[in-house]
Design brief:
3 copies of one chain form a homotrimer. Chain A is an alpha+beta fold. The first copy, chain A, contains 6 helices and 15 strands.
C-alpha cells in the first residue's frame, strides 16, 4: 500500500474529495488515503501552504502529498509534480508549495502535460479529478521517472510569505500566519531565534506586542496559563511562538487574525 | 480489499458513521472505506440522489455504494440493495437512488428482509448500523446472489426530480438542482443539449435568466470571468450548466438556491 | 491490518489528525484507520466519554481506540493505556474513559512513561502527535506487554457523570447527556429500567417532564410522530430514552441541552 495524503478546500458536503479517491483507486488499488484536511478556506492558498508544511514530514518517506486548492483551474496555471526530501508532491503551480520548495529545494519540478497520466476527458473546472488525482495514483504506483509527466520547469510560483526579522538587537518582528480550530494564533517567529537572542542578551524578560495588547513572558505549556481569559504565549507544536487563551479562543477573544504584526522584545 | 463508499447525513460530530464502519469490519476485514460525504443536509434525500449520481462511476467496478439518508427509519419503508452498471448499491427505498435507477436500469432490486444479513437486534432508529452496514459488508464479501437478501421488488420509490425541457426552438428550461460548498449553483441543463441547439440554430449568442438577473454567454472556465463579483455561467464538472462568482459564492451573492428556474435562450 | 479508531476535538480544518496518522504509519504500516469523529467540542471531555462508549464495542476485538481530547496537555495529567473487553484504549487520564472503565473494569491501567514508545522530542502542546499516536501504533503492532509502557496506576480520573435514579416507585429521574447532529437529545434513562417499572407497576401510561414541557408516551420509532413540530420520545440506538422532533431538531425547537433534568412518571 502506498500512502497518499489529501489537502483541499473542497469542504465536507460534496462528492469532490471522494471522487478523487475513486479516480485514484481505478488506476491503483494499493493506496492508503490519509485526509490531512478538506477544510482549507475556499481558495486559501497561503493557508494550504502552511498546513502541508506542518504535516508532510510526519508521514513515511515515499508518501505522495496531493494538494488541490486551485482557484486558477482552467487557466494557464500549470499542474506540477516533484520529488523532494523523500516525498512526492502533486498540485497546482500557484504557490501552494512555497514552504515545501523553500525548505526541500527540489532539483526538478515537472509540469504535468502528458495525457497518458490524465483522465481521457479533462474538464475546465475540476483538474483535481481529471489531472491531479490520476497523476498522484500513477506516481504512487511508481516504475517511471517523473520526467515522463512533462517538461521540467524552473520558475515555480513562490508566494511572498511573511518572514520573521531581527530588526534590532533585542527585537524580533513577525506575523500571525495561521489560526487553528481552537483559535490558537500561530506566528512565524521560531523558538530557535527566541532562544538565541535570549541567550546572547542574557535577557531577564520578554514582552510581546500584538495589535490588541501586550503579553508578558512565554509559558512552557497551555496549563501554566492563569485561570480566566488572559491571552498567553507559548511555543506551539511547530516550534514557533503561538498565542492562546486557556479553554478558549485567542482569535475570537482578542481579535487576532492572519497577518497581524507581532513584536517580541527582550529586556 | 473491497471498496465501500459512504454517503450519509450523519454529520461529523457523532459516532454514527464510525460505528457503521466498525459493524462492517466485524463482518468483513477486507474493506477499504471511502467517505463520499457525511455532510448531506439532514433528511436531504434529493441532495443525496445527486451526490451519489455524480460520484458512483468514478470508482472501480465492483465497489459497493452505501447511502444512509433515512428519515423513514423505523417505518415500513423498505431497505433495498441492487447491482447495476457493475456496482452495488445499498440503502433505504426512499428515492435516494432515483438518478441511479433511471440511468442504470437495474434488472433486479431486492428488499433486505433476511435476518442473516442484519445485526441480531435491529433498533427502530438506526438501520444504518443494524441493516444497511451489515448488508453492505456481506455484499462486499460476495459469494452469494443478492436474491438471498430478500424478495425482488418492482416499484422502487422514484422522486419526481426536475428535468430540462426544450420549450421553444431556442429555449431550454431547467432548474438549479445543487449548490456546492463553494456556492456554485449546478443546473440540470446539459452541455449536450446546449451544444445541439447552438449548432442547429447557428445561434450567435446565448442569454440565461435566473430569478435574480440575466447572464450573457457561457464561459470556458472559471478563469475567464471578469474581476469583481459578476455572476457567470460555465459548464461544470458534471457536464451541466453551472453558475459561479470568481473567488466568491454565486449562491450567497445572488441568492440562488435549489429549485430556482433557469431559462437558456439562444439568439 | 490492525484497526485504530480516532476520536478527537481537532476539528476538520487543521493538519492535526492527519499528522497523528502519519506518525502512526511511520511506526506501523499495517494500520486501518477509522475516524469516529474529530468533531468533539473543544475540550469536551464528557462528550467524548459518551461518544467512545457508544462506539467502541461495534468494532472487531483487538481494535485500538485512540482518544485525544486533552485540555491538560503539558500539565502533570498522565497519558494512559489499557486493555479491556478485548480492546485497547489510549489517551489522557482526564476522565475521557470514565464510561469505559466503569463498564469494562480493566484489571490494569498503565501510565505511558517509557520514552521508547514516544517521539524523540515531546512537545508541551501536542501529546496526540508525540505520545498518544506513537503508543497507539506500537500497541496495534503488539508483541509486548502493556507493562512496558510504564507503571500501573490505581486511581484513574473518573468523572462524576449523571446517573438515572428511581426516586419513587413510579418515578425515574435522569438527565440529557448528549445532543447529536440531528438535534436529538439523548438521556441516561435506560430502556431496561423503563420496561422494568412499567411491568412492575402494570402502568397504563407514562409522561415525561423536561424543562420546556411534558411529553406523553414513548413512541416505537421516529415515524410514529405526528406531523408538525411536536417533541416526542422514543428509545434511541443506545437503548436509552431520547427526544426528537420529526424532520427537525428537538434541541433547537425546545431548547434542550446537555444536563437538563428529565423525569419519567408512570401512572
Amino acid at each position: 500500500m502506498s500512502i497518499v495524503t489529501l489537502t483541499t478546500d473542497f469542504g465536507y458536503s460534496d462528492s469532490y474529495a471522494g471522487v478523487m479517491k475513486g479516480v485514484m483507486l481505478k488506476i491503483n488499488r494499493e493506496l492508503q488515503f490519509v485526509d490531512i484536511t478538506h477544510g482549507i478556506s475556499p481558495q486559501g492558498i497561503q493557508q494550504a501552504a502552511y498546513v502541508i508544511y506542518s504535516a508532510f514530514s510526519h508521514f513515511p518517506e515515499g508518501s505522495t502529498h496531493l494538494l488541490v486548492v486551485d482557484p486558477g483551474v482552467g487557466s494557464k496555471r500549470r499542474p506540477i509534480a516533484f520529488e523532494a526530501g523523500g516525498y512526492f508532491f502533486v498540485g497546482p503551480d500557484n504557490g501552494v508549495f512555497t514552504k515545501i520548495i523553500e525548505k526541500l529545494e527540489p532539483s526538478c519540478i515537472h509540469e504535468i502535460t502528458n495525457p497518458d497520466f490524465m483522465e481521457a476527458n479533462v474538464s475546465n473546472t475540476f483538474h483535481g479529478r481529471d489531472i491531479f488525482a490520476p497523476a498522484t495514483a500513477w506516481i504512487a504506483r511508481g516504475g517511471f521517472g517523473l520526467a515522463s509527466l512533462g517538461p521540467q520547469i524552473s520558475d515555480p510560483v513562490i508566494l511572498d510569505l511573511p518572514r520573521q526579522t531581527q530588526s534590532a538587537p533585542n527585537l524580533i518582528e513577525g506575523r500571525i500566519i495561521y489560526v487553528d480550530h481552537f483559535g490558537n494564533a500561530v506566528t512565524n517567529i521560531t523558538a530557535g531565534l527566541i532562544a538565541k537572542l535570549q541567550k546572547e542578551l542574557g535577557a531577564e524578560g520578554v514582552e510581546i506586542e500584538v495589535p490588541s495588547g501586550v503579553i508578558k513572558g512565554i509559558l512552557e505549556s497551555y496549563c501554566e496559563a492563569p485561570d480566566g481569559k488572559a491571552i498567553c504565549a507559548t511555543i506551539g507544536s511547530l516550534d514557533t511562538l503561538e498565542f492562546f487563551v486557556r479553554s478558549g479562543s485567542a482569535s475570537a477573544t482578542y481579535g487576532l487574525s492572519v497577518n497581524d504584526d507581532v513584536d517580541v522584545r527582550f529586556y
